[in-house]
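User: What would this chain look like folded?
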Amino acid sequence: MVLVNDREPLVSVVITTYNRQAYLKEAIASVLQQTYKNIEVIIADNGSTESPKALVDAFQDSRLHLRINEKNIGIGPNFTSAFKLAKGKYVASINDDDLWQKDILEKLVPLLENNPEVVVAFCDYYVINSEGVVNDQLTEEQTKREKRTQLKAGIYQPYHKLALIDKSIFSALANVIRRDAVDWDKLAKEGAESSVFCDFYMTYLACRSGKAAYYCPEKLAFYRVHDRTETMISGNKNAEAKIRKGKAAIFCYKTFSEDPLLQEFKPYFEKELAHYNTTLAIGLLRVGQVTEARPYLFNAIAKQKFNLRTLVALTLSYIPQLIARNFLGGVK
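Assistant: Here's the prediction, encoded as structure tokens.
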């Protein structure tokens, strides 16, 4: 039996999962071992071929709540529908293949409780391999890439640049959000379009409030890199994954670029739109949808002066596809 301190506010933790039971078991265990006990854990299974019910039941923990989709409804809708069930004052999420340190909630929740103007508390994290071993080099590179090396512990208000440009906040793993800071109906409505970027879109909805974020520089989570992650799949030769990524990013960056609150960042969003128009076009070319791909390439060209990746993809769209496909695999 878990002893809960009722004076601690409830935190709803969402774990979305699909056909990764071995990793899922580890992820659930890392959440249940939290030193912060007042939690509910919503596990949203997206139509896995093998139900995780037996795995979840084996934990014998009343804080676990399993939601199973009869069929795969997509990454975004599965993510957003799980959050709609949350009852906590605060919400957090963890991927089914990632892990938490046992004190992540103990460290982050008080930062929200003690600072009413803060809507998200976030931290740094380790990068691990498929076996759970920390990769120090990748960890350092990830922290530097997401600009957390430039951050000191404390409050940032507003935090638009930090969230949407620097991408310092990893909402799918390493933060806790004040539940009433997000328009969950809007997120649910647009979850399908934000798709693989639904956590990024959630970050956007929280930060556009103009309120604050609090950074805790400790590494309190573990991000697993392996060949079955959506990032790795879309970065390789899986055309459908590249198409998903392109469509989701275009929706997000188009929304950001049109937001009156974010006009100072519009040049950056336009650059990202050009990049992901090309990404989507490459995916479409790989599945033989040449006519559908070209408008995205022309959109990309219109948004940037010169980009070799875009021009190569456009050139390949005009040569016989049996020949072009030999080269498309090398265009990322």
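The chain has a mean pLDDT of 92. If you want, I can go into more detail on any region.
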